[in-house]
Write a structure and sequence with these properties.
The protein is mostly helical. Helices cover 81% and strands 0% of the residues.
Length: 342
């Protein structure tokens, strides 16, 4: 990736991060962090391991479509963390990091295959959310009392998840490259690049859609492995809520933490257009915790500490954009091999 684009991604994310940090009440933040103590350290450290699942999912996709590739797992981990940092900071979430990932990976496997792997990774990431929400509905029915209004809500949510799963399975079979790139044309800062990209690579996008279909239809083991890695990440990320609630209570059910996470992420993703899903995530925590008969203090503590963790990892991801020299990495690659793949 050129230094120009690297700096654009870095300074844009930094500006949004600074804006969000400026909205914090630092005295209140410090008081809650001090109260959480080592549990807050565990929350922040947890994501060092959770991002490994995300990286593994993307690595599986890259390896399947590019035998003999020279993409290193640790380098891909860096790009994964930075990509999510840009996603968190970008209105319309799950979009800001995708152009960054494509441009970072393109010198290694070619623009066409890099685009296919990034689109597949984004699809798999979102696809796993719907399976997680659907599984959480089953978990709720098995562990919680279900009133008639709640039953109706669960039926509506389950129907929505099943519809989304069908849509994504259709996309895996037919490809979504054109749809994804067309969407990028409407986003600030990247729309000019996306428009030019589509004009230059219209034929290649057809090939990308064919590769997306090939992964699902011809290599189900790879597809299943990538989805399971993302799904496992969703389940394990409930540990974050578990750690925070341990600050307030000793008897914490991990099943309850999964339900809190499922409801919160579902509610927050309805407000996808907000950077870091500001407000939506806090409201989701409040409603889900109260729905499980926990105190308002628990909801406030969980929401605040999770928000601080997100800001810390967003900062780490942005710093990783500037860590390492892409030129040195590219020099290690076999340029003749890349030219053939292009």
């Amino acid at each position: 990736m050129s230094k120009r684009f690297q700096n654009i991604f870095f300074f844009f994310g930094l500006a949004v991060l600074a804006l969000m940090v400026s909205q914090l009440d630092f005295a209140d933040v410090w008081e809650h962090v001090r109260h959480a103590g080592y549990w807050f350290i565990a929350v922040v450290a947890l994501w060092t391991f959770l991002y490994l699942f995300n990286t593994l999912s993307w690595y599986i996709i890259i390896r399947s479509g590019n035998p003999g590739h020279k993409v290193k797992f640790l380098w891909l981990y860096k790009i994964t963390v930075s990509g999510f940092a840009l996603n968190y900071a970008t209105p319309g979430g799950l979009m800001g990091g995708e152009p960054y990932r494509i441009m970072a990976l393109a010198p290694y496997i070619g623009t066409e295959k890099a685009s296919a792997s990034v689109i597949l990774f984004a699809m798999t990431h979102i696809f796993s959310h719907f399976w997680f929400w659907l599984a959480s509905i089953v978990l709720f029915v098995c562990t919680q009392p279900v009133s008639i209004p709640m039953a109706l809500l669960l039926c509506a949510t389950g129907s929505f998840c099943l519809l989304a799963i069908w849509f994504f399975l259709s996309g895996y079979r037919k490809g979504l490259a054109f749809r994804a790139m067309n969407l990028l044309q409407h986003l600030p800062f990247v729309k000019k690049w996306a428009t030019g990209f589509i004009e230059r690579h219209r034929d290649n996008l057809d090939h990308i859609d064919q590769q997306i279909a090939a992964l699902h239809n011809q290599n189900p083991k790879t597809f299943f492995s990538a989805v399971m890695s993302e799904f496992t990440c969703r389940v394990c990320s409930a540990l974050e809520i578990y750690f925070v609630l341990r600050v307030l209570m000793t008897d914490v059910s991990y099943f309850d933490c999964i339900l809190i996470l499922a409801f919160t992420t579902l509610f927050a993703n309805m407000l996808f257009f907000m950077p870091l899903q500001l407000g939506g995530r806090e409201g989701g925590f409040l409603m889900s915790v109260k729905g499980l008969a926990m105190s308002t203090d628990a909801a406030i503590l969980v929401a605040l500490l999770v928000r601080i963790r997100e800001l810390i990892w967003t900062a780490i991801g942005l710093l990783l954009i500037k860590v390492g020299s892409d030129a040195k990495e590219i020099a290690k690659s076999d340029t003749k091999e890349i030219a053939k793949k292009e």
